[in-house]
Design a protein that fits this description.
By secondary structure, the protein is of the alpha+beta class. The protein folds into 3 domains: about 110 residues, Orthogonal Bundle (Butyryl-Coa Dehydrogenase, subunit A, domain 1), CATH 1.10.540; about 120 residues, Beta Barrel (Butyryl-CoA Dehydrogenase, subunit A, domain 2), CATH 2.40.110.10; about 140 residues, Butyryl-CoA Dehydrogenase, subunit A, domain 3 (Up-down Bundle), CATH 1.20.140.10. It is about 50% helix and about 15% strand. It contains 13 helices and 10 strands. The strands form 3 sheets. A 4-stranded mixed sheet has the order 1-4-5-8. A 4-stranded antiparallel sheet has the order 2-3-7-6, with no helix packed on it. Strands 9-10 form a two-stranded antiparallel sheet. Strand 2 and strand 3 form a beta hairpin. The two termini are about 25 Å apart. Bound molecules: flavin-adenine dinucleotide.
Length: about 400
């Protein structure tokens, strides 16, 4: 396999590296330290990144985007995450859902939403699946009508009336458009009774609720979406009524796979940051009359951190390359699962190297550990990983 990068891939990687070092790194720790989760977000960094193309990177040039390939996506996410994992995710979250607009929405929906998304530097996207009483159940559908999505949508002429709540929704509080799973038939399992809607933030009867306070990824907004007799036009239904699960199944353009690649590539950047921190510390800090780099325990930790990071990078780049070559293999899902283990071990080892080191470095090492804890609660949740195993052994 040839891992060399072409000129376009290299140019995006260098652009992301520069933006990460010059714009993201200087604000990362300060945003992380803000106590109120409502105020950790920074529009300035989003606007600057958007002007460089990081918000609209995956939309096809036919629709005004940049159409970068999966290898480039992995490179960019890792570079941005090296400076701040949550800010990297804030951009790639838009990739995940803008891709959905261009692949599963009809022409009228594309005209109404894709153009606005491309033109407005503050237009960020989200998708509401999780509810206060249903997270895993919505991702590993169970054949019981009582399980999963409870947010209801009832048809009234040309509109749908939505009532209920979503929880933990990324870009909640700042997003301008949300994809939303709502129950349109509660007599059948969610596979056959859920419809996918487009919800602009100014929809009457829709509002943001509480902003969740997380240990890691503090920049990243996770809020409640609350629907109280919200009126949504029928024109905002994506695909068929009751077809939300069938719709995403039929999407062969790579969106499902992207979620796995996204988190694994982001983890590579965080691991790179941890390795750099430990190397800098080992080369500069003295302990017992000699530099830390002379201590065998520190050498062993750094060796393991680097080996794990390079193994993860190789797997991520292979997964990205396979996506681009249309090779159907479960590599991205494996990389996602592996990234959770690697990331959490690497950031813990980095923190161990720091122990009583300078307060600023320990704060940064601590942030990486907190950020990496998030991987246990997203698609890498231990039960949801069963999906991957199922795909591989079936
Ligand atoms: C940073 C962050 C961003 C997020 N962004 C979004 C977003 O944009 N949109 C969105 O919709 N959601 C989002 N989520 C929510 C996330 O997808 C859910 O937290 C996740 O799916 C788990 O659901 P839950 O929290 O309801 O846990 P539950 O499903 O209630 O699970 C709780 C515990 O029970 C275990 N469990 C569940 N089912 C089973 C089973 N069948 N057998 C054995 N054990 C089981 C789980 O492993 C877990 O340990 C986000 C979460 C975080 C932390």
């Amino acid at each position: 396999m040839d891992f060399s990068l072409n000129e376009t891939q290299l140019a995006w990687q260098m652009k992301a590296r520069k933006f990460a070092a010059e714009e993201i790194a200087p604000i990362s720790l300060a945003r992380d330290a803000i106590l109120d989760p409502k105020h950790t977000w920074d529009w300035d960094i989003i606007k600057k990144g958007s002007k460089l193309g990081f918000r609209t990177a995956v939309v096809s040039p036919a629709f005004g985007g940049h159409g970068i390939d999966f290898v480039t996506q992995a490179l960019v996410m890792a570079e941005l995450a090296k400076a701040d994992s949550a800010i990297s995710k804030a951009f790639s979250q838009c990739w995940k859902w803008s891709h959905l607009i261009s692949t599963v929405c009809n022409e009228d929906q594309k005209k109404r939403f894709l153009k606005a998304f491309i033109e407005d530097d503050t237009f960020v996207l989200g998708k509401g699946i999780t509810e206060p009483t249903a997270g895993s159940d919505n991702r590993i559908p169970i054949d019981d009508p009582k399980a999963g999505v409870r947010l209801r949508a009832e048809r009234q002429g040309d509109h749908w009336i939505l009532n209920g709540e979503k929880a933990f929704i990324a870009n909640g509080g700042v997003g301008k458009l949300f994809f939303l799973d709502a129950r349109t038939d509660s007599s059948v399992p969610i596979r056959d009774g859920v419809t996918l809607f487009l919800i602009p933030a100014d929809t009457p009867g829709f509002r943001f609720g509480k902003q969740f306070n997380k240990a890691g990824w503090r920049f990243y907004m996770n809020a409640e979406l609350i629907f109280e007799n919200a009126r949504v036009p029928h024109a905002n239904v994506i695909g068929e009524v009751n077809g939300a699960y069938r719709k995403s199944k039929g999407d062969t353009s790579g969106g499902d796979l992207f979620g796995d690649l996204e988190l694994a590539a982001n983890a590579v950047g965080v691991c790179d940051c941890a390795v750099e921190q430990s190397l800098a510390l080992a080369r500069t800090k003295e302990q017992g009359g000699k530099l830390l780099k002379e201590q065998q325990s520190v050498q062993l930790r750094i060796n393991r951190m680097m080996a794990l990071t390079e193994a993860l990078r190789a797997l991520v780049m292979r997964a990205a390359w396979e996506h681009d070559q249309k090779v159907h293999a479960p590599t991205a899902a494996l990389a996602m699962n592996y990234s959770t283990d690697v990331l959490q071990e690497v950031t813990e080892l980095n923190l161990s190297n720091h122990d009583d080191a300078s307060p600023e470095m320990a704060v940064h090492a601590d942030k990486l550990v907190r950020d990496s804890s998030v991987w246990s609660h997203l698609a890498g949740d231990s039960v949801q990983r069963m999906r991957t195993v199922r795909r591989i052994i079936k």
